[in-house]
Amino acid sequence: PVSLLAMPSYKLNYFDARGLGEVSRQLFILSGTPYEDNRIPKDQWPALKEKYGFGTLPVLEVDGKQIPQSLAIARYLAKEFGFYGANAFEAAWVDALADQAKDFLSEMRPYFVIAMGMAEGDKDKAKAEIALPAIKKHFDLFEKAAKDNGSNGHFVGSKLSYVDILISEFVFSIDSFMPGSFDAFPTVLAVRAKVTSIPAIKEWIEKRPKTVT
Amino acid sequence: SMLRYKLIYFPIRGRGEVARQLFYLAGVPFKDDRITISEWSSLKAKTPFGQLPVLEVDGHQLAQSFAIFRYLAQEFGFAGDSPLEALWVDVTADQHKEYENKIKPALRFQGSEEEKEQLMRNVAEPARDKYFPLLEKIAEEHGSSGHFVGASLTWVDLLIAEHASILLKQFPGFLDRYPTVLAIVDAILSTPKLKEWLEKRPDTAF
Lengths: 213, 206
Prior knowledge:
A: 54% helix; B: four-stranded mixed beta sheet; Glutathione_S-Trfase (chain A); Glutathione-S-Trfase_C-like (chain A); transferase (chain A)
């Protein structure tokens, strides 16, 4: 445990959503590190955009200095707080799965915008042509990774890492749009079960703002 | 004697080149396994994500290009000199990847002159003008002595310099509005050990 005097001040700026900011929130909570959870309403974003040097969210402020890019932020916090694998090779595997998960999210985006009514389109067609193939393609890999790791409730090694949290959150979001989407991936679901059974995370999930994504 | 490291990729620079450069700069021997398309079709199912590059370390496989680059960079000392520097290397690399994904349709496009011009105006130039001011800002705030982040060579220097050299071959003058970036790219490509590699590496179009 670090003395409170030595700890930097942390502020996480993101939308009122889970998305790509949630993994960092959970890292703060798991490590017992105080942080400011600044949620910017979507309608205020255009006016505030200039204030954030890179024009995107999330932005982490460490002692007032702004840092963009969700996965870079998550990796930095995971390293600081000890959720980044037990050695360099495990860390690389955590990163590899996280990059793959981000690719997955990008492939799902066209489905999400239709499903959330933000773009014109046939929701069922989007599900069949975009969502289901993307889920199969990436979650076959995640299922294999979890199995090859020994089906111990983690994607890599024997301790919680940030990619366990990241993929668990994506599962939660997508399952809320398409229940049962991950029934074919029981080892992935076991990782999510393990993450959400941690008391601090369980408590957070119960009390956090309820958002669509 | 068995080599510890094997890099499996196609016989191009693409998403494998930064790893090759890191090995060369570190003076670490590795098996540069350049495979054919037919070899790939039988290997694909045996890789973690069905993609290349794959790095083998003592027989253990690792996938995803940036995870590979970051791993090698950390082993060999090209990942920044502090956790904050490593963070800014990662930020810059992810920012660069988003830009590269946007500009990709405009590179190596094989259509009509009119379509090429449209892609240039509607895709390439906006992607460039969104990203390169941010890159200049990063270099100004976090880089020195001819580097994008920190005061010594990092894997993101190699990533950006490699991209710039391909880009400018196809579109000379494309980055004229960003002289700071051009100067840093020049400095990186002039690093003696890297120059050695650039001169002796297999010559491929990209």
